[in-house]
Amino acid sequence: MAFDAASDVSDEALMALYANGDRAAALALTQRITPRVLAYATRLLGGDRAEAEDVAQDTMLRLWRQARHWQQGDTRVTTWAYRVATNLCIDRQRSRRRKGHVGLDDAPDLPEPGPGTEGRLQDAQRLDALQTALAALPDRQRQAVVLRHIEGLTNPEIAQILEIGVEAVESLTARGKRALAALLSGQKPALGYEDDEDAG
Amino acid sequence: MQDDALDRLFAEAAASPPAPSPALMDRVLTDGLALQPAAKTLARPRAPRPGLLARFAGLFGGAPGLAAVSAAALLGIAVGYLNPTVMDGLASGLSYTGTEEFFPSVDFLTDEG
After folding, report:
1. Separation CA A149–CA A143 (nearest Å)
2. Which residue, A2, A153, A179, A130, is CA-closest to A79?
3. Which chain B residues have a beta carbon less than 8 Å from that of A180?
4. Which of A25, B18, B93, B106 has the most CB atoms at less than 10 Å from its CB?
5. What is the C-alpha to C-alpha distance for residues A33 and A46, in angstroms, rounded to an integer?
6. Is A44:A143 a contact under the CB 8 Å cutoff?
């Protein structure tokens, strides 16, 4: 039986199939979970692609090992994977800080507003500006904001992932969003929102 | 920056996630297949082993054969144990060659009146 990433079979059912030796389930889980974990890790790790790939592979390695012990109904596979990825990213960030490689003050400067007005360049600048601003947030705020506003998870799901209460999630996302708005407020030309604001 | 502008930026980021490289997907899938538990196969059901009586009957070609052999054995035992006089009587009974008239007269069938 073949499963693609858009199949109706749930992630949890795929875990059971994988544990029973179904090779197609291994492929489907790879296609479904890896991109999400990679995107999340990339945003948590300040855009460091190589480290994010390591985190994604390590998360999936733990998922494969967990499969035979997976209890249906315990938790969602994606929630579990996000939680593992969060912890792996925290470990890497701590390791970096111990080595003195990156601190909040070392975050790259926000991009200078340039004369380029080409659409793709502007898009890239906007996303770079967001990534840089996210990197300047405290870890917990960054995790909550990314999960809520970019990965599109619900507050209860985020609470499970971060192992905190729903109210704490709401507080983290609200504070994170305010901090991002403040960080990005000086970047309107780079973000391409100058005209919008003027028009409004 | 206003909330709606920030929300648009989030939406833009959500719509363009960093795509995994084919090499990463290959590594993940290779790990997955290497660590995958072996497929469970259902064992073929074994036919139930025949009982002792059935196996014994099989030596004589099945139940009918066993019945014939048993009858012959019983007859043999009977022949061995019964008094020879009785046996003679039985034998003479089996070999009776006299005639009996079951319809002493059939004249009534042909008589008129």
Report:
1. 10
2. A153
3. 1, 6
4. A25
5. 20
6. yes
Q: B73: domain range? A: 61-94
- Give A171-198 pLDDT, tens digit per residue: 999 999 999 999 998 776 666 665 544 4
A91 C-beta neighbours (distance < 10 Å), count: 12
Of A160, A47, A23, residue with least CA distance to B33: A23
Looking up tokens 């030596």 gives B59
Cα–Cα distance for residue pair A36/B55, rounded to 1 Å: 65
Instruction: Show the domains of chain A with their CATH numbers.
Output: 1-102 (1.10.1740.10), 110-200 (1.10.10.10)
Residue type, A78: T
Task: Flag whether B55 is in a domain.
Answer: no
**Residue B50: predicted pLDDT:** 74
Mean pLDDT on B46-58: 74
Domain assignment of residue B18, yes or no: no
Q: Are the C-beta atoms of A38 and B18 separated by less than 8 Å?
A: yes
CA distance B58 to B66: 8
Residue A55 to residue A57: CA distance in whole angstroms: 6
Strands (E), B1-113: none
Is B36 in Cβ contact with A30 (below 8 Å)?
A: no
**Of B9, B21, B27, B30, which to mutate for an interface test with A (greatest number of A Cβ within 10 Å)?**
B9
pLDDT at A45: 94
Residue B69 lies in a domain: yes
**How far is C-alpha B18 from the geometric centre of its chain's CA atoms?**
62
CA A64, CA A29: separation in Å to the nearest integer? 10
Least confident of A5-14, A95-104, A164-173: A95-104
How far is Cα A191 from Cα A116, in angstroms, rounded to an integer?
Answer: 11
> How far is Cα A42 from Cα A19, in angstroms, rounded to an integer?
29
